[in-house]
Amino acid sequence: MAELTAIQGDITAVEADAIVNAANRAMRGGGGVDGAIHRAGGPAILQDCITRFPNGLATGDAGWTTAGNLPATWVIHTVGPNYGAGERDGGLLESCYTRSLAVADELGATSVAFPLISAGVYAWPKQDAIDTAIRAIRAADTAVAHVYIVAFDTATATEVDAALSA
User: Fold this and answer.
1) What is the pLDDT of residue 1?
2) What is the CATH number of the domain that holds 101?
3) Annotation says 128 is catalytic
């Protein structure tokens, strides 16, 4: 089982083999974490998205691109369910984590940093997003040794840390 750690900070600055992007289905950049990763990583990420995902990516699935100018080697993109738009299947949210870790294994990544998928602009209830992330990561059959859940704000990082200790 991967070592699971909560950290507070900017996911675009995390030094891990791969960082996970909470992307949208179109795979052409967006707001929130998606926009931050595309801005910090530069145009190479978008170009790779266009090449690798000409028809976008399905909710719950994951795929990878270059990390461009980021300190990571890869960006693993996953599309979370949009709770605010009525997509409330928790299995799709869990799939984002398990599929991302499967992609990390295919790449040979040993460290992966996740945001809380769907907990921002997609409005998934935060505590459930935290619990789902931890449950899915702990249950995943992965060779990844270190997994980080990165929270931008201190309060969320504290909530993640408390859930990890429970």
Assistant:
1) 76
2) 3.40.220.10
3) no
